[in-house]
Design a protein that fits this description.
- Six copies of one chain form a homohexamer.
- The first copy, chain A, has helices at about 25-35, 45-50, 55-65, 75-90, 90-105, 110-130.
- The first copy, chain A, has about 140 residues and is mainly α.
- In chain A, helix 1 (about 25-35) runs parallel beside helix 3, helix 4 runs antiparallel to helix 5 (about 90-105) and helix 4 crosses helix 6 (about 110-130).
- Chain A is elongated.
- The N and C termini of chain A lie far apart (about 50 Å).
- The interface between C and E is large, with 63 and 63 residues.
């Protein structure tokens, strides 16, 4: 989305905010992203989100915490992220989290199984809803 | 959903089809489900789907293949299934696949991380779509 | 949803508006619904929507036009309505449009095929999105 | 979507219907759109919808009524429209209602807050559904 | 999505798998698709899905069964498929199933009615959910 | 969802965590929620989320920031939250954010307009996607 010409809204231009043009506040967040990910570049999602530095800060903080080391291994976390992104249909997210998954060691066979499960789950979800299936007693214990 | 009284549609009653009342065709599928899952009971999803034996056969065949042994371990497969079910909002599926996940060894900590990722992914998906973020060149190679 | 006690919002109570308690404006719409559908009762959807008579009027007008006689036969129209309601997960809509479909002659076999298609479409939709399949040239002519 | 070559369906070409090529019925609706919006052009949504003049008429009538003067101010109405469009992922709608919002005075700060709320709501919605949180008693009064 | 350069994942390239480059297993499935559909070409969906031959086999088998001859006529089946694809927002699916529908005899008037129903259903679904409308007693019989 | 009996997962019971039973860490968050909202009770969403104190902390922190004072007034923020919750179909969220909106001064007329916009937007979103409407040039400036 772009702000129409002649808008008086500051910072409404929606070109990505490159590191070179970023405020010190935004640069600090970019630095943390690159340090955490051990990369030397910032992807478009952050560069577009950066138009609102509070959103950038909060979302990066959340992602760093949620996708950081935990009990689930890094690849499993990406597979879960991809499952959601495919289900909601976010093209950018499918591409970026797909790239992450490959980088974290996903194999073609794992990718095929992920697709199979996501597709099938979207199917059985609708069948269960259509049939208004009551939750089994033993699932409630 | 229930068929109104006085309908001439055969088999339109939507009570679950119990093993004792099932046709030989449906019983054979029930037997295969119990054998594959090493259980002695059939959950409601199958008992409601069984009103259309072709659907029951095809969906069970798909699920057996997709959720069977593969390169992803069984718990990871359930986590992916849960991620989709939470995103689409299927209450039955969340309950039944949640139960499966616990049975396959999911810990409370893993469950907490699953929730965290699914919630966050649903958030960042919408942000990326709202901002119409273009896919980075390096994701296209 | 209910309005909290002590609210000063007029008409905020969310009990359904029964014919006997309805304003002349709402009764006129209820009369038209019953006349069009050749029934002697009003279902809950209209009785809850009636809290905002403008919404009731506009939505009934739209539905009467869209679900009225056309080139698609009445049952086909209900099947399409059910396909959407199952996909979005609206429990009330699945029940009410399911009842309509049975009343318009849907058979159990047709219902089974509807479920099969809706389930499968929800699956293949996600696969196509996941794989970012480009639209074939010949589909663009 | 385009109709394949050689189709016998009249009006199946899916090029937008420009004012100059429109029927008197469609032109009348275009005129009303421009008069209501105080503009001298028609956007693509209407020009594609116009292939079915009944749909064009009904949808414009609904939009004119719903987005016209009311108790919610015009910008708030656009923010709500954007919230839905982002959640469903309609790229065209995000662009066109975003443009409307800017035109109605949305500031960059307001846009940032809108994004923040829409993102967070999509997150907490899934968490509440995943946990099957029962509605609190006091919300039912 | 594309696998990054230097990946060690076999078959991770995401160019479509053309007939000429396909394995005997995949060619056999392509042959069956063309024979069933009485065509001499394979659309992109299958050529991208073919990276995982198991998925290709299973999905084609499901689609052939579900969209094959049944009690619903072929065009009605496509209309249902389109209703789902529009609701989930799968651009590829809308294009390919739209093309199928035209080929199976859909008229412009039928297409207009399909759009009208899908749009309206998506609206009333949300209204029923917002108002938490309870299912009428008579729909439960 | 409930953990099956005999699970070894600590804290897997899914009864809500009441203040009296909460750990000091969770109580501190409950205290902050009540102080910020000027209430003396905790709603079910937080009591179920509290099973994972990290999730509780992070989500409350996000919500406090996003729904706190800003450039959008508090009621407008709730209307946006409701628009998303209705669109995704989260019954709990519709109830709790509806209650918040009433408490923040929403009138029945405002509620009626909110419903009207959310319903209509869900409709036009699907029409724009179905017709694959290209974004107008002037929206890209």
């Amino acid at each position: 989305m772009t702000a129409p010409t002649g808008t008086t809204a500051p910072g409404a231009s929606f070109a990505p905010i490159e590191y070179a043009d970023a405020s010190p506040e935004v640069r600090a967040i970019y630095d943390d992203i690159m340090a955490s990910r051990k990369t030397d570049w910032i992807n478009n999602f952050w560069k577009y989100l950066a138009h609102d530095p509070q959103n950038l800060r909060r979302i990066w903080s959340d992602l760093k915490e949620v996708m950081g080391p935990g009990v689930l291994d890094p690849l499993t976390k990406e597979l879960i992220y991809m499952a959601v992104s495919i289900t909601t249909g976010c093209r950018y997210c499918i591409a970026s989290h797909g790239a992450s998954a490959w980088a974290k060691g996903m194999s073609a066979a794992q990718y095929g199984e992920l697709l199979a499960i996501v597709g099938l789950a979207n199917q059985t979800n609708r069948l269960a809803v259509a049939l208004d299936v009551p939750v089994d007693e033993r699932f409630r214990t």
